[in-house]
Structure prediction request, 182 residues.
Amino acid sequence: MKSLIGRSVYLRLAETSDAEFINSLRTDSQFNRYLSAVDGSVALQREWLKAYKKREHAGTEYYFIVLKRSDNTAVGSIRIYDFRLDRNSFAIGSWILNGAKTRSAALESALLCYRYGFKELGYTNCHLDVRKGNEKVISFHQKSGAALVGEDGENVYFDMSLESCDLFLNTFRRFIEPEFYE
Prediction:
C-alpha cells in the first residue's frame, strides 16, 4: 500500500522499526490517558508489531504512522481494525497524536482513515468506541456525523454510516484532495 496523503500529514503503514516511537506515544501520560495500557517495553511493542504485520498481510488490520509532510516527522498513530463482516463495518482506533502535530492532523488522519475504510476497502459502516472523559474525541465524532449508539461504564459508542461519511468527506475534502495516494 502506498502512503495516504493529506494536506499537512500523510499516513504510512507501521513497521517494526516504529516500535520505539509508538511506545513513546503509548507510555506518555500526556497523550495516553484514554488508550488501553501498555507495559512500557519497546521490545514487547516490537513483538506486537511483528504479529501485526501478519494481520496487515492478511488484510485484517492496518496500523498507520502519522507524519508531517513538511519534514517527515512522525507525530502519531491511527489504526483501522476489527472488521465485522456481519455488519460490513470497521473500527478506527489507537488514535494518538503528540505535541508536534499539525493544526489539522487529527482531522486529516480521521478523514484519510474514513476514506480508506469506506472507499478503498468498501465498507458501509464504521464503529467507534471512545473512553468516557475523552471529550475532544467524543465531540469530534459527534461533529463528524457519527451517531451515538450506546455507552457502558467505560466507553461511549458511535457508528458512522457511509452516507454520513460522504457528507463529512465532502465538507472537508480540501484536506485530502486531490492527492490521496503517493
Observations:
- The chain has a mean pLDDT of 90.
- The chain is about 35% helix and 30% strand.
